[in-house]
Write a structure and sequence with these properties.
Blueprint: E1 3-7, H1 12-23, E2 27-34, H2 48-61, E3 65-69, H3 71-87, H4 94-113, E4 118-120, E5 125-129, E6 134-138, H5 155-159, E7 161-162, H6 170-179, H7 201-205, E8 214-218, E9 223-227, E10 254-260, E11 265-270, E12 278-289, E13 299-304, E14 312-320, E15 323-333, E16 340-344, E17 349-361
Parallel strand pairs: 1-2, 1-4, 2-3, 4-7, 8-11
Antiparallel strand pairs: 5-6, 6-17, 8-9, 10-11, 12-15, 12-17, 13-14, 13-16, 14-15, 16-17
Length: 362
Amino acid sequence: MTKVIVGISGGVDSSVAALLLKQQDYDIEALFMKNWDEKTEDGACMWEADVEDAMRVCEHLDIPLNTVDLSREYWDGVFTDFLKEYEAGRTPNPDILCNQEVKFRAFLEHSLALGADMIATGHYARVHNSGDAYQLLKGLDNNKDQSYFLCRLQQQQLQKSLFPLGEISKPQVRELASAAGLITHDKKDSTGICFIGERPFREFLSQYIPVKNGDILSSEGQRVGQHQGVYFYTLGQRQGLGIGGVKGAGEEPWYVVSKNTEDNTLTVAQGHDNPLLFSNSLQASNMHWISEDIPSIPFSCQAKTRYRQADQACAIRHLENDLAVVDFEEAQRAVTPGQYVVFYNDSGTCLASGVIDSTSSV
């Protein structure tokens, strides 16, 4: 019998993943990963409630629960990179790095050491063995597809991974959880970055990166306000700028269009559709292809520059070593350095990804 260790988080998705695998007669165990070791202001550990829910789910399903402390791996493989990117004026995606370095590397290694043949998670994605390679496919629920966050997985990781929720929708997941009597059936989905919790982002980041106020400039170079540290802002951001009553300016809201960490300035422009917010091409580094079948260039495909974005038609016109230049058929709004561009074919197979380095404006 195939032994599968399910990464269980205390949420409804991983709970139902364990439920479905148990119903399919796998030899199931669960593993709770403690990835961040910090207490809240009242002294409680941020993960305590989740591990309690995981214990109750495993008791209900009658499956063993293991725990492992991967906070050191998370710090070294995810958090230090997160800080470096912000200090460089970029906006990283720690969820993608967490999957790459922790959930499908450290967790996989630990599970194999416990005797597992496979691991499973509650991600909404699918794996298909085409014979020549393992393919990562979108989950069938378009509203919950999480292939974007799994874009850095390698062949050996996909070969050992199961995604039981890939064929079903989020409403079905909650229905299954409720019918099975799982306490997580109506638990609110977690949002945001796990190690920040309910704290304001600026408050959290200022613990690690010194705050330095500076000027907010209009695209014409006029000083229109003061920022509280360029690291705290991202391209396309509207909230938290505190700009108002600028002489000669219209009524439209202001948006961040660029950051300069060297002179500690933030540049803004008015209007949601201001041309300065749009790019028709980007350069990406650290390209990763899920299979070794790298296409000839130029190569037409689809891409996302952020989660929840609809697929955008594009062409990779230059590819050398781990660098790519990508042109879009339509200009893209707020393409952000530090984020990932993820490539798909027309059938929903995730092909590759890269870290956005720079963009070319319309």
